[in-house]
Amino acid sequence: MLVSWTGALNTSVSGLRLKGKKFWFYSLILESFLFFTSVVRCRGFIPIGNIELSKPGNMRDQLGRILAIDHDSAWVAISAYEDAFAVVRVGRTQHVYGPNEEIVEKAKIVHAVYKTSDIRGTVWSMCFMRTRCSMDEYYPVVAMIINRKGSDANDLSMYALAANDGGIQYLSGYSEPGPLALEIAEIPQLDGFGLLFRAGDILIVDLRDPKDICCTIRISMTGSLVGEQISVEDSCRGLDVDDDVAACALLELRDSGNNIMMDDSYMAIDGADNPGSMKSRVICSWSWEPDAMRGQPRLIFCLDDGEFHILEFNWDTEGLKVLPERVHRGLPCKPLLWMDRGMIAGFVEMGDGMILHLEHGRLVHKSTVQNVGPILDLAIADYHGEKQDQLFSCCGMCPEGSLRVIRNGVNVEKLLRTEPIYQGVTGLWTLRMKRTDTYHSFLVLAFVEETRILSVGLSFNDISDAVGFQPEVCTLACGLIADGLLVQIHSKGVKLCLPTSYAHPEGATLTSPVCVDWYPDVTISVGAVGHDVVAVATSNPCCLYILRVRPLSSLQYELYETQHVQLQYEVSCISIPEEDSRLRTSSSAFGGDFRKRKGNNSAAEVDVRMFAVIGTHKPSVEVISLEPDEAFRLLSIGSISVNNALGAPVSGCIPENVRFVASERFYILAGLRNGMLLRFESGTSKDQYLPVSFYKESFAPSLNTLLQLVAIRHIGITPVGLVPLRDSANSDIIVLSDRSWLLYASRHSLAYSSISFLPASHVTPVSSVDCPSGLLFVAENCLHLVEMVHGKRLNAQKFSVGGTPRKVLYHSDSRTLLVMRTGLTGASCSSDIVQIDPNNGILLSRFKCELGETAKCIQIVKIGSEQVLIVGTSKSTDRPMMPNGEAESIKGRLIVLSLDTLGSPHECSSFIPTSNLSSSSHTGSFPEIVGYANEEFSSNSMCSSPDDICYNQIQFEQIAGHLRSLTHVTFTGAVLAVYPYLDRYVLAAAGNTLSVFGFVNENPHRMKKYAVSRTRFTITCLKTYASQIAAGDCRDGVLFYSYHENLRKLELVYADPAQRLVGDVVLLDCETAVVSDRRGSISVLSCPGLEVSESPEKNLAVQCSFFMGEIAMSIQKAAFKYRLPIGDEADPVLESAYNCVVASTLLGSVFVMIPLTSEEHQLLQDVQERLSLHPLTAPILGNDHAEFRRRGIPSGVPSILDGDMLVQFLELTSEQQQTVLDDGSSVKAPRRSISVFQVMRMLERVHYALN
C-alpha cells in the first residue's frame, strides 16, 4: 500500500474587504461555494458558511461555474455552464467561535432564486450593477455576457430579481457590432456605469436604466505599432473586426492553460513554443484600485503583448471622462490583483509571477512570485556535502522556461564559512550594546575552558580584553542587563562588565573595562540574563539566586542578591522573556488587548509580573515570579510525563531548553534531552490571556495555575535547543537537534519545517549593517554565516535557460546536468541538448539538432567502459500521432552522442567567502563564464529583492566543448522514448514500434538492431528493471515485455486491464509498476500470482490507485534513508529505507509516495476517515474526501492514502488528536481503539524523513 504526500499545492482564491473584515471566496471546486474568514486554521482558513449547489459530478446545466458577489456581500450570483443561473442572498450572524475559539462571522443562506429559462446559452461573465431602479421594483440587477446557442456573437443581457413575485426577470439586451464581447464589470463609485471588455477594445456602457442601455465611450487597443498608446473615442460606431477571428483569439487565450496537455511530446507539445500563436491586443487581466479617491476609480489591465495600462475615470459637469496611461511593459499576466498601498500582484501562466509597485506613474518590480508549474521532467540527485536530496526540474514553457534546483525545507543563502578551527564550541550568543540598537555588536563564543568575544561587522575581530569577560572559563550564559552593561555567567560566578570604547564606540573611555564579580558558595550549573535581572541555579544544593544591578557612582556598579531559595529539584535550564515582562495594555507584545482579555476596567493599566521559565529534574516546567518586592512565588507549573504505546514512561524527559512564547494565546515550549519537543498551555478561558497569578494585583494561590501538556513531537534523538530569530516573545524559533528546524510561533500546535542546512550544534541570530537578518551556525567545526530567505513557498533556485526545457538528466561522473530544450528562437536550430553546471547555471557544452528537427527524449547509456547519450528526435514539426492514437507517417532519428568530452564544472566551494556579508553583494556575473554567443542564462535565487537576480552572459570564445555525434539511425516515426536495457542494449520506441538495439563489440559507432515488436498505438514512454520491460502507450496503458536473447525476440508478457493514456511509468521491481494517466490518476499495477498458463488474459492486477487531480508527466523511483528519531522503544528501528515514488505534475506539484505494510495502511486509513469528517481537519469545501480521491478507481481497488490529510494530525494538540481518534462515527467498520502515540510515531517517522 502507498501513502501520498504533496510537495506543493496550487489553488485559486479571490478576496473582498467589507466592513473592516476580509472574506475569501474559493473558486476551484464547482459543487459548492463557501465564505471564508482570514483566521488561520492550522494552515488554511475557517469556513463560516457552506451552500450546496449540486451533487458531485454536476452536469453542464447545474450551477457552479462562475461566481459574482455584489458590493455589500449580501448577494451572490452563480451560473452553470449552460442555461441556468441562481441568485442567492446571504446573511451573517456575529460572534460565532471557531474551532480554536476565534471569533468569526457565520454565513447562512437566506434566499435563493434559480433561473433556468430564457438564457439558452453559456454565461461568459456576469456582475452586479447598481442602477436607478427602485429597490421596490427590481433588486438586485445582474449584467451578463451570454453566448446564445447558434449565435456567433455574444450579447449583454440584464436580469433582475422582481420585488413583486420574487422571481428573476429578463430586463433588456444589448449587442454592439464589432469585436466579440468577453467580460462585463461594474465601475466602482460610478453607479450604473459598466465596462464591456471586447477583443480589441473596451466599451463604457450606461446601465443606469437597465431597460435602455447605451454606449458612451469606446477605448481602442488595436494599435498598429507595439507600444502605441491606446485611444479613447466618444463614439463606438464604425468598428470592423472579424468576430470569428476574435473568438479564436479568446479561445486560445482561455485555453492557454491547457496547451501543455495538447502540446507535449505526444500531444503537440511543440505547438506551445510558437510565440506568435496568440492574437495581439487582447486584455488578459484587470483589477480595480482598492480604496481609490472618491469619484476617481482607477483600473489597471494587462494586454496579451505584456503592456500594462491604467484607466482613470472622472465625473464632471460634462459627463464621464477617461484618462489612459501606459505604466509598464513585461510579461502578460493572468490574473492581476491591485492591493493596498499601490502594490500589484501579477501572475504569469507557466512562469514566475511578480509583485509590482506603482511609483510616479510607472510600475516598479519589487519581488518575484514563484511558480514551478508545469514540471515537465525531474531528476533526483544527492546534494553533495549536505547529505540530502535535491530535485532538478524542467519548469515552465517558452519564453519563461527554466531549470529549477529544488531542495526541501526553508532556504538559506550561504554567505560565509570560516576555516574548521572552532572545535569544542559549547555556547554561542550575539549581544547588543543597548536594547534599542538595531544591530548586534558582540559575538560570544564559549568553549570547554575558554571564552572569546568577537566584534560584529565587516570583519570578526577578537575584542575579548576590551569587553571584560573572563577568558579562561566556559561561559554558561550571557546577556545585556542594562544599556552598556553586559553580564557573563560561568561556573564560578557572575561577572558584570562595562566595555571600553575600543570594543564599542559608546563604551567607557578607559584603558580597561569596568568589571564587577559576584561569587556564590557553590558551583553554578545554569543561568539566564534578562532586563535588570540575572537568575542562576546551583546543583548541590539545589538553589536559585536572583541578582540585580545598581549604580554606586559614575562607572561604578554593584551586583547584589535579591532572592535566594532552595528548591526540591535541580534546575536544568532557565529562560527569561526577552521583552520587558511589565506588559501594559497600551503596548502589548502579545498581540491582544489585556483589558478585553482580562475583562477589567478599560481605563486601568494591567501590570504583568516579571517572570522566568525554568525546567527541573522533577521533570517539570515552572514559571516563577521575578518581582523585586515579592518573595519567591511559583506562578504556574507543568509536569512532564510522557508514556509510550505500552504505557511505560519515556526516559530522558529532563528539559534542556525552555521558552515562553506569546502568540494568539501564550504557551511554553520545552525541548527535552531525549529529542522531544513539548508545548504547554494554560487552562485559561477564552477571555483571559494569562492566568490570574501572572498579574501583579492578583494573589491567587499558585496551585490553581497548572500548565497543560497539549502537544508532543519527536524532533530528533539528541537534546533540543530553542533559539528565537529575534528579540521578541512572538518570534519564530530555530529548533536544534539532529538537524535544524524552523518552528512557527503563531501556529496553534507544533508546526515546523526543516532548514536546508547542515546539522548544527549551535546557532544565533546576527544582525549587522551588511547582513541585517543573518544566522550564524556552528557545524563541522566551522562558523557558517547564512541569511534565511523569508516569504518563499519553495526552496528553489532558478536558471532561465531559454526555450522550453523538456528533459533533464543528472550525470554523476561530471556532476552536471544534461538538458533537452525545444522552442528555441535562433535561426540555426529550434532544439538542442546542453550541459549545465547546476551550481551556477553555466553552459558547458551543446549539441544542436538539425534545422526542423526536434529532440523528444534522452537517456544516458553505458557501453563497456564508455558512457554515451542516446537522443530520440522527430524530423517534422507536425504532431507525432493522430487523434485516434495511431502514429503519424513522419521520420525520426536515434542519435548517439559521446560524453567523454563533457566539460567539468569549475571547482569552487558552495560557500562564497566575502568581506561584504550582504546577500545583494553576490549579484553580478559568475567568473569564467562559458557558452555560446547571443545566448544568456540567468540565475535567480528567488530573494525578495530584484537586486538578487543574477545574469551571466555566455561567451562563445570560452566554450568548453561540443557534444559529439558518433552515429545515428533513421526511423519511420518520431522516437518518443529510449531506455537502457541489461547494460548492453538500448530500447527505442518510434511510433508504435519497439526496437532492441545493441553495439557490436561494445563499439558505440556500430549500432545493430536485434528485435522489433509492434503495438496498436503510439508508445509514449519506456522503463526497465532487470530483464523486465514496461512500455506505456496512448491507449492500451502499460504493457510488460520480455526479451529472449537467444531467439532475438520481444514477447508481450502482461497487458493493462484498462485503457489508459499513459503519462509516465516506473518499475519498482520486476513485477510492480507505478503508472500515471492523463486523467489525473496514479495506479500501482503488478503481475498476478498465477502462472501464465492459468491466466490466458495475462492482465496486470491493479493493487491500489489515487486520484491526484493533476497530470503527472514524470515519475521517478527514489529511496529515503533516515534515522528514526526515537531511541528507547521496545522495537527500535534505527535505520529505515523506503523505496518511494516521486511524481511531478503539470500544475507544479511534487507527489511523494511511500510503501506501507497492510497493518500500517489499515491503521492510517481509519485515521484518515476520522480526519476527513472532523470539523478541524475536514476538507474546507465540505466535499467528500473519499469520493474525490477515488474518482475513476474501479470498485474493490484500495485507495492510496492522502498524506496531506494525515499530516494535519501532527498539527493538532494532544487533546484534539484524542478527540479525533475517539470519534468512531466516521468509521464504517466496527470501532476499534487507536493509540495517539502509535499514530504519532508512524507519521513522525515519515514526516522526519520527507522533511
Automatic annotation (TrEMBL):
Annotated GO CC locations: nucleus
Presence of keyword NAD: no
Keywords from the UniProt entry: Nucleus
UniProt keyword Disulfide bond present: no
Pfam families the record matches: Beta-prop_RSE1_1st, Beta-prop_RSE1_2nd, CPSF_A
Positions of the RSE1/DDB1/CPSF1 C-terminal domain: 962-1210
InterPro entries tied to this protein: Beta-prop_RSE1/DDB1/CPSF1_1st (IPR018846), Beta-prop_RSE1/DDB1/CPSF1_2nd (IPR058543), RSE1/DDB1/CFT1 (IPR050358), RSE1/DDB1/CPSF1_C (IPR004871), WD40/YVTN_repeat-like_dom_sf (IPR015943)
Ranges in a coiled coil: none
Residue span, RSE1/DDB1/CPSF1 first beta-propeller domain: 52-362
Residue stretches making up the RSE1/DDB1/CPSF1 second beta-propeller domain: 423-787
Single Gene Ontology MF annotation: nucleic acid binding
Predominant place of localization: nucleus
Subcellular location: Nucleus
Protein name: DNA damage-binding protein 1
Annotated source species: Triticum turgidum subsp. durum (Durum wheat)
